[in-house]
Amino acid sequence: MQIESVRATPGLAGFYTDDQRAIKDGARTDGFAYDGDPVTEGFDAIRQAGEALLVDLELTDGTVVRGDCAAVQYSGAGGRDPVFRADRCKPLVEGPVADAFEGRDPRAFGENVASLESLGPDGKPLARDGELAGSSGEQLHTAIRYGVSQALLAAAARARGTTMTDVLAETLGTQPATEPVPVFGQSGDDRRTNAEKMLLKGVPVLPHGLFNSRSKMGPDGEKLVAYLEWLRERSNELAPSGYEPRFHIDVYGMIGELFGAPFDSDAVLEYFERLEEATGHIPLQIEGPMDVGTRECQIHAMAELRDGLDSTGIDVDIVADEWCNTLEDVRAFVDAGAADVVQIKTPDLGSVHRSGEAVRYCEGTDTRAYLGGTCNETDRSARVCAHVALATDAAQVLAKPGMGFDEGYMIVENEMRRTLARRVARESEATTQTEVMAND
């Protein structure tokens, strides 16, 4: 069996692409849109429709497998690749990228994605001193590597007659999870109604919250404190029996905006103590407490805060997001002990096996791996990421795409349950066969 052809079709992502810097700088909302001009290069408006490029690989047996190229909501921020334009990338995927993979054996997933990671921005292989280049700045846009690798993974699973979980586990040398990985729900701006939905469904990690501006935080961060108090109360009122949630709030650097450095100051630590008190006995994770402009500075700031929290006994975990985009970034944050949790933002890692490698890098450390991504993905990329989560047994996985919560949660949770059931059935059949052969 071979890869016969590669096709690409511009399509829709599950949310929108937003200019994070303009929003942080105080852009006013206009209904669902924003007033004002964008400030980040590549944006035509502060909020614009998310784009996807739908990749189809046709195999010689007539099977068509798929992957979707998509980029994060806040493209161009925190060291990430620029805004993704599907129509501009279609000729690249159907031209030089297709040329690189047509005629290849789809079963050779490891070799195929290694070749994908070595392609330059023009789709042609890069070389440096006789070796394949590895700098993310010289490679294809992360969205292209993300979507094409999904299709390559699906092709390998189809050709081998197995699951994408098993292909990844073999490639990465992992033992897949035997239970669904805890799902993290994201609420969007409808942070109360959607949180209540999550509580009713017993979502393991919630609610994201989207506290991305001073107006949402309050001048002293008091609105976030009040929200956590409300969330704890509603958890007590709505939670199913035996439910033990974990709260996870993304603040997009706003704690740093409100209080400033140093991040082990009395003011910062006292604020985190207020957050801990607001949640009571429920564990709390704060994502992106600050954004200080470079990876090195971000690592220093996060480590400073983590040390301060540890020395004062404040039991709040911090999650790396800004400036933690590539596999190399994840390694740097983990090596520095700069976070309790790292978000592995799947579209920013490029090929899906890179996300798996990032999860693996957290093994044996005191940093947990959160297999994240963005609301601005597609149902296809979300399903593939469910297999990455299972193959690596990540600490948690994001419900995506979209900001309506229910749909993304259903997609990710059901894909994991369906895959686990298939693996159990296959193992049971193999055991029965072995027993029959032993009795013959």
What's the short version?
The chain is an alpha/beta fold and 440 residues long. It has helices at residues 20-24, 86-101, 109-117, 142-160, 164-172, 193-201, 214-217, 222-238, 254-259, 266-279, 295-312, 327-335, 346-349, 352-361, 379-392, 406-439; strands at residues 3-18, 29-30, 33-34, 47-59, 64-70, 127-128, 131-132, 183-184, 205-208, 246-250, 284-287, 317-320, 341-344, 368-371, 396-398. The chain is globular.
Structural overview:
This protein folds into two domains: 3-29 and 38-172, Enolase-like, N-terminal domain (Enolase-like, domain 1, 2-Layer Sandwich); 183-423, TIM Barrel (Alpha-Beta Barrel), CATH 3.20.20.120. The chain has an eight-stranded parallel sheet with strand order 8-15-14-13-12-11-10-9. A three-stranded antiparallel sheet has the order 1-4-5, sandwiched between helices. Strands 2-3 form a two-stranded antiparallel ribbon. The longest helix is centred in the C-terminal third of the chain and has 34 residues, at 406-439. It starts with a strand and ends with a helix. It contains 16 helices and 15 strands. It has helices at residues 20-24, 86-101, 109-117, 142-160, 164-172, 193-201, 214-217, 222-238, 254-259, 266-279, 295-312, 327-335, 346-349, 352-361, 379-392, 406-439; strands at 3-18, 29-30, 33-34, 47-59, 64-70, 127-128, 131-132, 183-184, 205-208, 246-250, 284-287, 317-320, 341-344, 368-371, 396-398. Helix content is 45%, strand content 17%. It has 440 residues and is an alpha/beta fold.
